[in-house]
Amino acid sequence: MRLLKYFFVGGTAAAVDIGLFSLCAGYLGWPWIPVSICTFILATLVNYFLSIQFVFESGSRHKKHVEVIGVFLVSGLALLVNQLVLFMAIEVLGWHLIVSKIIATGAVFFWNYFGRAKFVF
Predict the structure, then answer these.
(1) Which domain range does residue 32 map to?
(2) CA–CA separation, 37 vs 22, rounded Å?
(3) pTM here?
């Protein structure tokens, strides 16, 4: 049940990430690398607040500040994978920005859930 709830929370965060990425990199033409980092961080914040509201029990395992640091450490690894997938898809394979972003976001979904469940909450 918790994974199903996280699917909706993660989907909302992914919509923020992909939507802002599409606007800034796709429509406005801003460079995809800094845009993808910024939108990923914003989506991580959205994910954290929705996760503690609907999926995980905040403060049950660690103090709040340790919990936030843990979320960003787990997400930091996900960001590296996300950037690597984006680079390979956009720069090496020549795929469309938005298709690449959707694939990169999907590539880190389960890591984000299991990393948070195992190490943070």
Answers:
(1) 2-120
(2) 13
(3) 0.89
